[in-house]
Specification:
single chain, 186 residues, alpha+beta, 7-stranded antiparallel sheet, 9 strands, 25% strand, globular
């Protein structure tokens, strides 16, 4: 009888632990300082932060947009608990895909949970697609907006390029206006 009670208690304890959702503590984000094209795709392993390389930009014309002189990887950390809760809700909506279709990576995230575990996410250039812990996934446009907005990504994008971002044109959720590289609101 005693063994049975211990066994039932262990089963209950393990099932309770499995049902607990993992709470996000912070997200470290590495991203490029703008949009660029390349003959071959960017792999997630290429997105590495270097403190030595700093972003610079040049002005195309007085009334035009600013553009980066070269592709530089920037870093940011998202710690706001309200934002992290929203990101967690959207992350839980991810859908597993059959293949990765060779995503062209532009952003890499380390999702750090309160329990100390770390998940890795690599986002496509115009996401709703990514690689989550080596698994191809489709993500919501709201997820892409939350991560990109709160890491400061949009301030590196030209206003004329913002129309190509699905998350900035999705009427299914409310969002704040974002500021472009030239300081214009979108």
């Amino acid at each position: 009888m005693r063994v049975c009670v211990i066994f039932i208690s262990l089963v209950f304890l393990v099932s309770c632990q499995q049902k607990q959702k993992k709470e996000i503590d912070s997200i470290n984000v590495l991203f490029y300082n703008g949009l660029f094209t390349r003959a071959d795709v960017v792999s997630c392993d290429e997105i590495i932060y270097s403190q030595i390389i700093k972003d610079t930009y040049f002005e195309v014309s007085k009334d035009s947009v600013h553009a980066p002189q070269e592709a530089v990887i920037l870093d940011a950390i998202i710690k706001d608990k309200k934002v992290l809760n929203e990101i967690e809700i959207e992350l839980n909506k991810k859908k597993i895909m059959d293949n990765d279709n060779h995503i062209d990576a532009r952003m890499k995230c380390q999702i750090i949970f309160v329990d100390g575990t770390i998940d890795f996410l690599c986002l496509n250039g115009y996401p709703v697609y990514g690689i989550y812990n080596d698994q191809p996934v489709k993500l919501s446009t709201k997820f892409a907006y939350l991560v990109r907005n709160y890491c400061g990504f949009y301030k590196w994008i030209n206003i004329d390029q913002m129309k190509y971002f699905k998350e900035l044109n999705d009427p299914s959720f409310e969002r704040e206006k974002v500021v472009s590289r030239s300081g214009e609101m979108y």
